[in-house]
Specification:
Blueprint lengths: L14 H5 L11 E9 L8 E2 L10 E2 L4 E8 L5 E7 L6 H15 L6 E5 L5 E2 L19 H27 L2 E11 L3 E5 L10 E4 L7 E8 L5 E8 L12 E2 L2 H13 L4 E6 L5 E3 L5 H20 L3 E3 L3 E11 L5 H8 L5 H13 L7 E11 L3 E5 L3 E2 L1 H10 L5 E4 L8 E2 L2 H6 L26 H17 L1
Parallel strand pairs: 3-13, 5-6, 12-14, 19-21, 20-22
Antiparallel strand pairs: 1-4, 1-8, 2-7, 4-5, 8-11, 8-16, 9-10, 9-15, 11-12, 17-18, 18-19
Helix pairs in contact: 2-3, 4-5, 6-7, 8-10
C-alpha cells in the first residue's frame, strides 16, 4: 500500500472509537502474536555512539531505551520474530551470537529472526573489544572502567536480546493483523548540491530524494483492542546533535512514548527505513525533538484511523547472504579520496595503511538480506545497514502493485550502502564499509562500494520479493 506524496489524509474525528472497532468478519483469525519489551538502558557509565568528540560517559537519561519483540505465528505454525532496538546499529559481530542462542533455545532459524535498529545517536557504544588502541570507536575516550563497562553492557545486551525473543514467543495468543501508511514532512535530504570543486556537504536539500512514508502495522486482540503497533520512518534518528550527551531514543523513542500514552495497553515498536541520506528538520533540543516524535505519532494515528488492509497468512521468511561488491583500488587509486575534505578521507587513509602493511582489501562485503511475506497482503523488506532513500523508491516503483514495507538497518550494521549515483558523486554516504571502527581484529573489513552495488542489492531484493508473493 503506497501513499503518493500528493495525497492529503485528513485527521480522524473520533480516533478512539475507530481504534476499538471490532475486527471485520473477513479478517483471518488464524494469526497468533506475542509482544515483549525489555529495558536496555545502561546502568553503569558508558560512552554514547554516533557522533565524534564525546570524551566521557553519558550524563543523564532523558527516557529509557528498549528492545522490543513482536512474535508472529500463522495457522500452519510458521513463526517469525521481529526485534526492534533503540540503538545506532545491530552489528553482526555482536548479534550473531545472540541469534545462535535463540536458535538453540527456541528452534527459530536465523531467517526467522529480524533485527532492526532505530539508529539513534544517543545510545550506548557497543563493543566486545576493551582495547581502546585497537578500537577507533573509543577515539576520544580513555577511561578503563567505562571501557570494561562497554564490554559488559554488550554481553548483557546479547542476553536481553535472547530473553525478549523468548518472552514474545511465550506470549503468543490469537490476534488479527492489518496495515496501512501515512507520511511525515520533517524528513529532509541532507546531501547539498555539489560545490564548485565537486564536494558534497551534509546540509539540508529540499530537492533531494526522500521516502516520507510512515508504514504502520496494527496487531489487535480478537475483540478489536489494539495490542501492538509497529511503525516505520525513513530518516536518520538524529533530531539531537552531538551537544546532547544523554540517553534517549531520539524522535523515534519519543514517538513510541507518545503513542503508548495515546493507546493504553498497546506496545509500540519502531523500524527504521532507508534514511541514510536524510535528517529530520529541524534538528533541535529535547522539546523540539519531542515535537518531531509527536508529528510521527500523529501520522501513525491517522493511519490507524483510516481503512487498514487486513493481513491473512501464511508467513514466509526468506533470508540470504549476498556479496556487495567493493571498488578495487590500489594506493594510487585511493589517493584522491584521501585528499578530500569530507569523511571519505578518513576511510581512504585507513585503506592505504592496510595496503602499506602488506594486507589486502576485501573485494566485497557479505551482507544479510531478509524478505518476509505475510500472505499477499504485506511484504516486509529488511535491508542491511544504512541504505539511501533511492533503494526504497526504486523498489516501490519496480513493484507498484506490491504491498511493500521497506526497512533498513536490519540484521547487520557495517556502514553506508550508496546507490550508483552517490558512488560517482562521493560525500558522506559514499563511505561504505566501516566495520573496522569496532576493533583491531577487523582491520581489513573496510571498503568503498562500487557502482554495481545498486544492481546487486536491487536484483537480489526483487528476486526475494517475487519469491514470497
Amino acid at each position: 500500500m503506497m501513499i503518493p506524496d500528493s495525497m492529503h489524509i485528513s485527521r480522524p474525528m473520533i480516533l478512539t472509537a475507530l481504534l476499538l472497532l471490532p475486527a471485520a468478519a473477513t479478517w483471518s483469525e488464524s494469526w497468533k502474536a506475542g509482544i515483549a519489551t525489555i529495558s536496555i538502558t545502561p546502568e553503569v557509565p558508558v560512552p554514547l555512539v554516533g557522533y565524534g568528540g564525546r570524551d566521557k560517559p553519558f550524563e543523564a537519561v532523558d527516557i529509557d531505551i528498549y528492545a522490543k519483540a513482536l512474535a508472529l505465528e500463522d495457522a500452519r505454525g510458521n513463526r517469525g520474530v521481529i526485534v526492534t532496538t533503540d540503538l545506532v546499529g545491530v552489528q553482526a559481530i555482536f548479534f550473531d551470537e545472540a541469534c545462535r542462542r535463540i536458535t538453540e533455545e527456541t528452534g527459530l532459524t536465523r531467517g526467522q529472526i529480524l533485527l532492526n535498529a532505530s539508529h539513534n545517536h544517543t545510545g550506548p557504544l557497543l563493543s566486545l573489544n576493551p582495547d581502546p588502541e585497537g578500537n577507533l570507536a573509543y577515539a576520544a575516550f580513555r577511561d578503563k572502567e567505562a571501557e570494561e563497562n562497554v564490554v559488559a553492557y554488550t554481553r548483557q545486551l546479547q542476553d536481553k536480546t535472547v530473553q525478549v525473543v523468548k518472552d514474545a514467543l511465550a506470549a503468543l495468543s490469537p490476534a488479527t493483523l492489518a496495515w496501512g501508511a501515512d507520511r511525515v514532512e520533517f524528513v529532509m535530504n541532507r546531501r547539498a548540491e555539489p560545490e564548485e570543486d565537486g564536494t558534497i556537504r551534509m546540509r539540508p536539500n529540499p530537492n533531494g530524494q526522500t521516502d516520507k512514508r510512515v508504514p504502520v502495522l496494527r496487531v489487535s486482540a480478537p475483540d478489536g483492542a489494539v495490542r501492538a503497533v509497529m511503525m516505520g520512518c525513513a530518516c536518520h534518528n538524529t533530531g539531537l546533535t552531538a551537544d546532547h550527551n544523554i540517553i534517549t531514543g531520539d524522535y523515534a523513542g519519543y514517538a513510541q512514548e507518545y503513542l503508548e500514552e495515546k493507546l493504553p495497553g498497546a506496545s509500540v515498536l519502531f523500524m527504521s527505513g532507508c534514511g541514510a541520506d536524510a535528517n529530520p528538520e529541524p534538528r533541535t533540543d529535547v522539546p523540539g525533538v519531542r515535537k518531531l516524535g509527536r508529528d510521527l505519532g500523529d501520522a501513525v494515528l491517522r493511519a490507524l484511523a483510516a481503512e487498514l488492509r487486513p493481513i491473512d497468512g501464511p508467513l514466509t521468511c526468506t533470508f540470504e547472504m549476498i556479496d556487495l561488491p567493493n571498488m578495487q583500488l590500489d594506493q594510487e587509486g585511493l589517493a584522491p579520496y584521501a585528499a578530500r575534505r569530507t569523511t571519505e578521507s578518513l576511510m581512504a587513509k585507513h585503506m592505504i595503511a592496510v595496503l602499506e602493511q602488506g594486507k589486502t582489501l576485501p573485494t566485497h562485503y557479505r551482507a544479510p538480506l531478509a524478505v518476509w511475506g505475510l500472505g499477499d497482503d504485506l511484504t516486509l523488506v529488511g535491508l542491511p545497514s544504512e541504505v539511501v532513500a533511492d533503494y526504497a523508491l526504486q523498489l516501490y516503483a519496480a513493484r507498484p502493485e506490491s504491498p511493500l514495507w521497506v526497512a533498513a538497518y536490519c540484521n547487520d550494521f557495517f556502514g553506508y550502502i550508496p546507490n550508483a549515483r552517490i558512488v560517482r558523486e562521493g560525500g558522506h554516504e559514499f563511505i561504505g564499509v566501516t566495520t573496522y571502527l569496532w576493533g583491531k581484529d577487523l582491520t581489513t573489513r573496510v571498503g568503498f562500494f562500487s557502482e554495481d552495488v545498486e544492481r546487486v542489492l536491487l536484483d537480489a531484493t526483487l528476486r526475494l520479493v517475487d519469491s514470497v508473493e
